[in-house]
Amino acid sequence: xxxxxxxxxxxSWGTALANLVGxxxxxxxxxxxxxxxVAQCNTYHTNSKYLAGLSLSPRVEATTTLSxxxxxxxxxxxxxxxxSLRGVVGELGNDLDGGHLMVHAVKGFETGTFxxxxxxxREETPCKKIGVLSGPNLAREVAEGQPSxxxxxxxxxxVIEASxxxxxxxxxxxxxxxxxxxxxxxxxxxxxxxxxxxxxxxxGFGDNTKSLLLTRGLVEISRLGMHLGAxxxxxxxxxxxxxxxxxxxxxxxxxxxxxxxxxxxxxMEQIVGAMNQVAxxxxxxxxxxxxxxxxxxxxxxxxxxxxxxxxxxxxxxVLSELMESSRYQYEVDPEIGVD
Amino acid sequence: MPxxxxxxIFHLNDERPAIVADVIARTLAGVGATDLAIELAINDxxxxxxxxxxxxxxxxxRLQEWKELYRTLGRRGREEKDHILKDLVSGYARDIVGNFDxxxxxxxxxxxPRGLTLLFKGQNSTVGLADRITLQGHTEExxxxxxxxxxxxxxxxxSNLDSIVVGWALDALGLPPFTYGAGKNLFSNxxxxxxxxxxxxxxxDRRLKDKLYKDTLKHYSTVILEKGYHSxxxxxxxxxxxxxxERKLKLGLMGTGxxxxxxxxxxxRPNPNVYVVPMTINYPLVLxxxxxxxxxxxxxxxxxxxxxxxxxxxxxxIVHYTKEVLGFDGRMFLQFGQPMDLFGNRxxxxxxxxDMRGRPIDLRxxxxxxxxxxxxxxRDAEFxxxxxxxxxxxxxRNNVVLSTHMAxxxxxxxxxxxxxxxxxxxxxxxxxxTFLELAEVYEGMERxxxxxxxxxxxxxxxxxxxxQSESIEHILRTAQRYFTxxxxxxxxxxxxxxxxxxxxxxxxxxxxxxTGYGLESLFTPRQEERVxx
Lengths: 339, 533
Known about the structure:
The complex is a heterodimer. By secondary structure, chain A is α/β, with parallel strands linked by helices. In chain A, 52% of the residues lie in helices and 13% in strands. In chain A, strand 5 (101-104), helix 5 (117-124) and strand 6 form a beta-alpha-beta unit. Chain A starts with a strand and ends with a strand. Chain B is of the alpha/beta class. Chain B has helices spanning 12-31, 35-53, 60-72, 78-96, 102-121, 129-132, 139-145, 162-172, 190-198, 211-226, 255-267, 289-297, 315-327, 364-367, 377-398, 403-418, 424-427, 438-457, 465-469, 472-483, 504-511; strands at residues 133-137, 150-155, 179-183, 202-204, 231-232, 274-282, 332-336, 346-347, 353-354, 360-361, 368-369, 372-373, 400-401, 434-437, 462-463, 492-495, 498-501. Chain B has a 7-stranded mixed sheet with strand order 1-7-6-2-5-3-4, sandwiched between helices. A 3-stranded antiparallel sheet of chain B has the order 8-9-10, with no helix packed on it. Classes of the chains: A alpha/beta, B alpha/beta. Chains A and B meet through helix 5 of A and helix 14 and helix 15 of B.
């Protein structure tokens, strides 16, 4: 009997992935904390909280029993918020061995340690065969069957092959590569840019501004990524610029919404209180800002978003600082030539 | 005392014909059976040998033979090609295989240490090598693991004395000798070759670049690991030229550990496990330090991979070194690191592997597909890369800071700070006499020790007892004594209230032992706070 594919996390992306694998004809064991959602998934094959109005594959079995995942699955895809990953995976680790293939689709760094998600999985489990899934994947669009693609990066081909086998279908493609660091950084950092993009839109700016933000943002992401050991070309792929475009152009993105609402004058408390899902970019901004400061990396956009989110400086003030400061006026960027 | 003669290595000579036959068979099988594969293998060897021998007068005949073969290979029949290949591989295997002579072993472990002791003990007749070489760290685990599987000991490598020192240490711990691959060039060193050739060392000819030779070598290593011969790998590949702890490791031979493990599982052998024990060898002064740093400072690409004429080939220098360095109260430290499995996980004395959370791991699962242990070149290369990183990190954590390293680090960093913008090539050629104020050296060493104490608490490095608990003055005096004893000229000398730096190159060499810990920041002028716009 082929083992089920394990999916951890009952949010929109976890549910969309579970559904995708189920629709491709594989059994899925889907772990989530909320017993009510489990009951709804198993009885009605829906998840009204996160993917309202869509019917899900009947091959997905939801459960609240974490230990079943390790015992019954070989390929496990982790889709929980970045700050809960260590706890969940640490507990899961009791039932794992070196044969398990672990893929995470979590975009963020651990606050305080700035550790990547794959590093945490390594620390909390006996697994070595670890990968990351990341790309321009707005959960609802994938769940609706719109054509899209993602990247699975791992040093171990086994991980990429097993992921492709269950994820690839008529509307979904999977590209493999070996740059785990680049794929993880691209996915995590674009959330900061998504907030920035939402801010710019909320302030009523147009396409020039958005393009400026995205292009310079990508340079910033690559700079940090390469500092961490990523390959530059990864950032021009699906998990880099691809993900950046989807997130920054889409009002569906939670991080984009955070920026947009801040621009309209709402406070952080109001925004966070009103959301039922985590906007990873908020915590990522702090983690990246602190890391950049400590390592003297030049990251003006992150710095600006940090000031808005954490220091309460009005977005317009930060923007004019970014545009007017003499620090940036004659900037020469050796990475992409004079601009 | 355990009966060492039960150890595998004492059976090497009996087993030798079987080992050679096995290595030949595996290498030939690896080439493949098609006409094309065989021709390509021979062709590669011929090409590499011609490139190597071209212009070498001494091997003109050999070169002609290769050229002839290279030209006519395509016209030769299958039977002849089979024959040529077999001859080549057999020749390689016989050249590589080691020898073990129990008489030499008894001599090496009995007479030689006493002789060495005579060299340095002087007045104090109670002093022995054990007073001069400190063995510390996870020695108990090592002793237990040799009975539970095959052990690969992976030391840092800075001197040709390393294999001798490790050999002595294993004996002192009551362990049998480990086999290891020694550069063939070392066998021309009369002193080393006598012991190596008879104590199970096998020959590695670094001049041979063809795939066939490298494969034969890997098969040899795999076969002996499978058979339970504990081995010594220097994962740095060669002696560290810079004086630093190795951070980039050569993984070619290291991969044979995993191949052997999987083969053991597939064959259902008892004790299939292969354990890795990283260790650091910490000398206050290095026998070949001078030659090595010269070599390091040569423009990249011109440095020599094989050095045949250094201090280790001169008996006089070795005697001088032993007398001086071990003479007074000189002490070297052999630090045995935490044993690990082939996947970089911690292993306890019972041979059980643990994940980072301390949960036991079933190793088989890493290499199984559908319940069967299998080889997978790509996966295994990645496992080996991870193991390499784990060993590199272990080297760094098990580095023992000695007075010479600390003093050299501080003096060199102070010199560097005084001449901002000058690179090492300029620093070693500073005109005139170079002095540091004694007060600034003391002050720098104080700061350095404060920081080292923090690093030790975080488990990132280790300190010798002197560096740990003596006064700064004492540490500097100890270093100064070393600096004036063995090398051609005193590296640094105290002159009143100043320290004269005579040999910046060697200062740099001993300084390099402590790079990679971010300690340089203690001596760089504080960067201005970044202006936040």
